[in-house]
Model the fold of this input.
Amino acid sequence: MIILVITHEMPNIKWNEYGTILKEEAKAIWNLQKKGKIRNIWFRKDTREAIIMFEDINVESVRQMMAQLPLAKGSLMTYEIMPLEAYDGYERLFC
Done:
């Protein structure tokens, strides 16, 4: 299963005051990626919020991992978890 996570920054955060926690966040994300939990991660160009792709894992495991990230624990971000499934619309071509 592929699970997509979209993070949302809390409003009015002065990120230049959070260098330590941002470094902790990067380290935590890197560790998850090294362990094969995170398949890909991007930033949205317009907001700098993260888009994270988890693969071969269940929603509850993703929820637990996200809750342990420094920015979530520090109430500096929220996130949406979206389980995805393969597109099956091509089947309409053969009906």
